[in-house]
Amino acid sequence: MPKYYEDKEEDYRACAGVREDFKACLLQHDCVVKEGKKPSECLKEGHCRALQTSFFECKRSMLDTRSRFRGRKGY
């Protein structure tokens, strides 16, 4: 479920909602906050895997030639 904020500037890029949730998940995870690791290191350990997969699927749907006719998936 994407998070939307009233005072935040609108992001019209593709997959913006999933991107925002993925970024928030990584930056608020204990791996980054308490252990002081970089978000890229936490990704390698498997944190926020579901959002990473959703973001990948959204970006991949943009390159899928079949989706040109059907439109992007609603993320």
UniProtKB/TrEMBL annotation:
Belongs to the PET191 family. The keyword Disulfide bond applies. It comes from Oryzias sinensis (Chinese medaka). GO terms for biological process: mitochondrial respiratory chain complex IV assembly. One of its GO terms (cellular component) is mitochondrion. Keywords: Disulfide bond. This is Cytochrome c oxidase assembly factor 5. Pfam families: Pet191_N. It comes from the Eukaryota. Involved in an early step of the mitochondrial complex IV assembly process.
